[in-house]
Input
Amino acid sequence: MRPVRLDIRGFTAFREPQQVDFEGLDLFAITGPTGSGKSSILDALTFVLYGRAERVGDGVRQLVSQGQPRAAVALEFEAGGERYRVARSVTADGKTKILVERADPSTESGWRQHGDGADRVREADAIVERLVGLDYAGFTRAVLLPQGRFAEFLAGDAKTRRKILADLLDLGLFERIAAKAGELARTHGAQVTGRAEILASEFADATDAGLAAARHEHEAARAASGRLSAVRESVAALVVRGAAIDREIEELGRIGAEATRGADLADTIVAEIGQLIEAIERAEVGRESAIESADRDAQAAAVAAGVLVEAESSWGDAATLAGRLERARALSEGRAALAERREQASALSAAIKPAEDAATTATLAASEAASREASAAEAERQAVDALEAARQADRVAAISAGLAIGDPCPICGRPLEATPDRHGAPKLDAATTALELARASAAEAAAVCRATERAATEAAGLVELERDRAARAEATLAEEDDRLAGIAAALATELGGKLPKDPVAELERRSDELRRLTAELDGRRTTAAASALALRTIEQLLAEVRGRLTTERVRLEGIHADDLLSRASAAGVAVAAGRGAKAPAATAQPAASAKAPAASAKARTPPKSSAPPPKPELDDDPAALALAATDLAARLGALADAAGAARSSRADAAT
Output
């Protein structure tokens, strides 16, 4: 055995796939640091070949790498001029698989399973041992030295090395042979010594006269021996002839037994073929019914498919209808929302007129307030003029107006000790009061004017706001109306050019109908598939029955009736030749006691001939097989009867 290539995965240190290529190598060394996997390569060799490793024995699941589900090793090797490949794996729970293959370039993979059982562990182990030529013990002694024994061998003394070699090579066998030889030598030495002692004690009186008398007796014995030899030869001839007859009788017995077994087997095959014919007939009837059902269901499914295709061609498929229905619902909802928005837009348009009226009223009020403000401003200006005239008329009164005792004098600045005489004070006071009243009226008129102006501005803004809201609402209505019109036009085109009064209801009806047609088609297809499966099941049953017919044909062909007939013919010729001319009719009627069995055999046996009839070519036709099996059973039964009769005849003749 010569290794060619070793593939390892999940094996001890080799978690990932590794390949060791030995091809072209005659001498090589495996080197590396401790723990790198050198010994694992050797363990992989014994594991893949024998399912064992020296350091774990049969507990090979310990060789699975940590965290890996299994260890797998494949070895390609050459043996006997052929190339083989053996692959073995073991899971972490100890389940083992194996496959032994032989190189075969004619296959696509280049390998072929090496016989039956090459994928079962026990048979594959036996195949590997035959290919390698060694069992595990022999391999580890003659090919692969176990780890540790080599170092012990190198470091030990001569006695230790001899013991290791004796253990590894099983040299104890030779020690046992030497011990046995010594025992035999001692035994035979003792026998020689004993016989020498017998000669010395029992033949000590042998003399020349005694020797002459012994020679005379010897010559007489030789003459008698010659006569006895002639007698022995005659007896030997008789023994030989009797032995030949005994062999023929035994052969006829074997032929009869084999013919009986063959006839029984042929009868069994006839019964089995009868059952298979009944099964075929029942299956054929079921097959015809299944074909009709399958054709009917397939046609119904095809019709349903055509209706569905026509509906989808006219309406669109389910996804298309779903999209159209969604748009139709959006159209319906949009139209309802559009009507509501139109009402809101009308309300917005109606709100513009009250806002315009309020703005007109506010504008008029602001105009009147502006007029009143102008009048109040003119009255204030006139009051200012009157006050200035009064002040000019009475400057003193004007200067001291409003002064009291203790106030600073407007001229010298000293505090007044008494108020000056004011002759013009009444007019100045009246003018001042009038100016204050005018100013108050002007301020009030200005405030009213500002308020009415703000109210007018707000009213105008409200009018613009209402107008803008109404315009935006109208624009939105127009856009929505255009959008809905586009949806309606698209739907109308998709639905044949005219939009139904209620597109949602129509599309829902079509969707429901399409779902019903789809469900009907699915049901038809399911039924058709079941019918097809039933037909395939019946056809598979027919194939199995015909396979069993083939098996019965092979069994029938395995009954070697022609060989039995040839052997029977040969046995008959040998009996006639052995008995010579004294019994020329021995084959046909050897003894009176055998007449009845011979007649019985003659009634069952086909006409005799010098050679067996040619073996018919059988096929798997049930009727032909049944006929052939029946004929073979009859022939073998007749042969068994004839062999029994002939055996009895020969036994009687020999007696």
